[in-house]
Amino acid sequence: MDKNVKLPGTPYSSDDFKKGKIPYVEDVPKARYTWSAGIAMSRFLEELKNGRIIARKCHECGRVYVPPRMFCSYCFRPTDEWVYVKDTGRVNTAVVSYIGADRGKLGEPLVVAVIELDGASEGMGILHKLGNVDPEDVKNRKVFNMRVKAVWKKPEEREGAITDILYFEPIE
Amino acid sequence: MSIDKIRDLKSAKVIPGDMEVGKYVYTLGLAGEKFFNGLKNGKILASTCKKCGITYLPPKAYCEECHGAIDEYSEVGKIGMVYSYTIQYVDGSGKKLDEGVIWALIKYEGVRGGIVHKLGEVDYDQLYIGMLVEPVFKKKAEREGKITDILYFRPIKP
Amino acid sequence: MRMNIHFKNRVACIGAGLTLFRRRLFETPRELAWEAAKQALENAGMELKDIDCVVFGSAPDAFDGIHMQGEYMVDGAGGYKKPFTRVYVGGGTGVFSVIAGWWHVASGLCDKVLVVAEEKMSPALPHPQYVFHHIFDPITDKPLGVNLIWIFALEMHRYMYKYNIKKEDIALVSVKNKRNALDHPAAQLGAKITVEDVLNSEVLVWPVQRLDISPVSDGAGALILTSEEYAKQYTDTPVWIDGVGWNLDTTYWTNRDLAFPKYLYYAGKMAYKMAGIHNPRKEIDVAEVYDPFDYKELHHMEGLQLARKGEAPILTREGVTERDGDLPINPSGGLLGVGNPIAAAGIMKVAEIFWQLRKEAGKRQVAKDPTTGLAQAWGDLMQIGTVVVMRV
């Protein structure tokens, strides 16, 4: 199909819309959800409250899953054992976010990373924030393979959420 | 192998959340624009595929049988007919309404489709399938090009 | 994997249609699907009554804002009173809907299938980004304030780290694709830009900048697939779909090798085996690989074995992937240039290979004489590869 073919479709701009040139109807979604965390993740969140990171181990292949899972997706059988992993690890990859969840600009840039925890199987990273890391060290890739440790909320402030870990910071 | 169970329900976590989309905006499209403009002018418009001889209400910009384009729009007749009806006693969240609302599917002769709308100026015991009805529109100045420009349908007095 | 590669019917593509791709289109989703379907039918010399069954594809319902969108679309997509199927694998849906259309014909169930894909991302306000927020794990990811671009940026950075790739080389993809799109009739963002423009554009999530990303779009596309017997009745120039492949990686995306798309390696292997391709780099003449981000074109070339690991940026720098190069990639202009109405963008890619192999691409026609092409999409939680291999 050549460039000069005229294709159907009636484009309009956000300006057209704001000026009321585009007829429409609108609706507000009111969906509210409750997500059940299930057995593995309920225990994981409960342990975060205690300042510990818990995982599940599959005895067949030896994999240690973080976050924990009740079944091994490789062996397709139940996992066998609860094991604790350390709150230290290594940065697999990291980026600097200048925007928030809604695409709005952040006041301060935020460094986020995939972190492979000590004691978990290779490649079992988790997503979290990094603190006390210069964005420049992300851009020049010094952050890769950096050793980091979790910085926890005070015990009385923890609520059993992934945010009970405030962020991970470099180990001196 | 071990299958764990949670015995203490306090440790079973439930995470609440909601859908953050602020709102949806649905543009009316080619046929919708014609239809809702019609309502503004106190008319119920249908579209007709000349090739297949089918008239659609609400109107379509294309024929669902032959997939040809439709550009012929015309007003449906003055007399509609109640094809089926129901009475709503509770609202969307299950709360009892003070007064029941009668909803009907209204069809027109020779027209495929119809309009779902309220019935008014009629008692429950007068309702019947096949009842002839007409639309009651809002005052012209108050119409906005929405389905609610029709307030309700009422029985045609003989 | 053991796989049967002997099917009842060889499957041909004999028609294609598209609407404009734009940030906002006034038509309803049904009307867009109808426009695209009508064009594809006309292009094939068919009427709707000739079609045995219809496959429809679109991404999450939450974009159009209509639940059970497959059912909503049925008359516009031409599926009324016919066996009608909606398929969905996120961004991979467009090419996957072609694969699903292929099943119908290859199995002998139907002879003539209409495949339609449609997407309107404009209804969700204030921004479709809010819809993407809902694809993440509500327990581990969402509480951190995750943004969709984070995960792509994390993948891109790992890829750059592993193979020591410069942003300048990745930006070349955006420059090439937006320039190619200047010659595409549906294109939303065809433009002459430079590497400096990309590197100076707004930094969203380092290393991802504004011009590294494809736009938000509305649009629709459609294709006609038939068995060999019927293809010959309608056209002298069918394009054969000789291989299809698809494969999913784990949804625990933090557990993957982010530097290499294994899901695509497996999907490609499946399609190549079916098509009897042993050396993809030599045997594929032209490819439309999924490029919602510029680095993804490179990542996907490597997953598809069109380049060795870490080699795609070098091929790009050397001009190999230009329209007049030895391995033209995204001659259409891709998602970066033509636009990204999710499922419809996948159809656009298959349609481009259809036109390239029929030598009907006009100004976009690649310099070499292509006989084998490939189209690919990527989706779900960045975990599925969907591939078709086409021949004349």
* End-to-end Cα distance of chain B: 79 Å
Helix/strand structural class of chain A: mainly beta
H/E order of the elements of chain B? EEHEEEEEEEEE
Structural class of chain B: mainly beta
Structurally, how many domains make up the residues of chain A? 1
Question: Can you give a write-up of this model?
Answer:
- The complex is a heterotrimer of chains A (172), B (158) and C (392).
- With 172 residues, chain A is mainly beta.
- Chain A has one domain (38-170).
- Helix content of chain A is 13%, strand content 40%.
- Chain A has three helices and twelve strands, in the order H-E-E-H-E-E-E-E-E-E-E-E-H-E-E.
- Chain A has helices at residues 14-18, 38-49, 135-139, and strands at 24-27, 32-36, 53-57, 64-65, 71-72, 77-78, 81-85, 88-99, 105-117, 125-130, 147-152, 165-170.
- Chain A is extended and about 60 Å long.
- Chain A starts with 13 loop residues before the first helix and ends with a strand.
- Chain B is mainly beta and 158 residues long.
- Chain B has one domain (29-155): OB fold (Dihydrolipoamide Acetyltransferase, E2P).
- Chain B is 8% helix and 41% strand.
- Chain B has one helix spanning 29-40, and strands at 14-18, 23-27, 45-49, 54-57, 72-75, 80-90, 96-107, 112-113, 115-118, 132-137, 150-155.
- In chain B, the strands form two sheets. A five-stranded antiparallel β-sheet of chain B has the order 9-7-6-10-11, with no helix packed on it. In chain B, strands 5-3-4-8 form a four-stranded mixed β-sheet, covered by helices on one side.
- The model of chain B has no long low-confidence stretch (mean pLDDT 92).
- By secondary structure, chain C is an alpha/beta fold.
- Chain C has one domain (11-125, 215-391): Peroxisomal Thiolase, Chain A, domain 1 (3-Layer(aba) Sandwich), CATH 3.40.47.
- Chain C contains 15 helices and twelve strands.
- A nine-stranded mixed β-sheet of chain C has the order 3-2-4-8-1-9-12-11-10. Chain C has a two-stranded antiparallel sheet with strand order 6-7.
- In chain C, helix 4 (93-106) crosses helix 15 (342-357) and helix 7 (167-181) packs across helix 12.
- The longest helix of chain C is centred in the first third of the chain and has 16 residues, at 29-44.
- At the A-C interface, strand 8, strand 9, strand 10 and helix 3 of A face helix 1, helix 6 and strand 6 of C.
- Strand 8 of chain A pairs antiparallel with strand 6 of chain C, so a sheet runs across the interface.
